[in-house]
Amino acid sequence: MIIGTIQDIEKFNTLSNNFKTAINYIQATDMLALNQGKHFIDGDEVFIIRDRYVAKTMEECFFESHLNYADIQIVLSGEEGFGYIDATSEGVVITDPYQAEKDMTKYFATPEIIYTLKKDRFAIVFPEDLHMPKIMHNSVEVEKVVIKVKLR
């Protein structure tokens, strides 16, 4: 997992052509002006989900991972807790097996770390990074984008 600020995101455009496409889009686009929902940047190679939601208690949240996509999660307004645990950590239990249509596996685990994602901060998560987004932290309503970057 990579945590950083939007000002520093450009250095990750060398990870792959899809990351370069995603990061160029991030730098050229006013994300707050996007309508909520799914927007295709480069077909199913790179797309964005714009969302607004009320953050939840940690007990209401769950860990997830993705097999075919990395996430670039960016908070546009508000803030949320963002839990992390490595997939190989002790005590990780699969609660919902992999669902190809959602590219998601759900887990139960105790977070090793909870980061605070604030405005203009991002998290990049890869398949081995179990992450728990949407944890309530100070503000309740969060505006966020998740850019899905195809890996395989």
How would you describe this structure to a colleague?
There is one protein chain. It is built from one helix and twelve strands. By secondary structure, it is mainly beta. It has one domain (2-150): YhcH/YjgK/YiaL (Jelly Rolls, Sandwich). It has a six-stranded antiparallel β-sheet with strand order 1-10-5-12-3-2, covered by helices on one side. A hairpin with a 4-residue loop joins strand 7 (93-99) and strand 8. The chain is globular and about 40 Å long. The model has no long low-confidence stretch (mean pLDDT 95).
> What is the approximate shape?
globular
The number of helical runs is 1
Strand tally, please?
Answer: 12
The secondary-structure class comes to mainly beta
At the fold tier of CATH, the topology name is Jelly Rolls
Q: What is the string of helix and strand elements?
A: EHEEEEEEEEEEE
> Are there runs of 5+ residues with pLDDT below 50, and where?
none
Distance between the termini: 18 Å
The CATH homologous superfamily? YhcH/YjgK/YiaL
Helix residue percentage: under 10%
**Main β-sheet, in a few words?**
6 strands, antiparallel
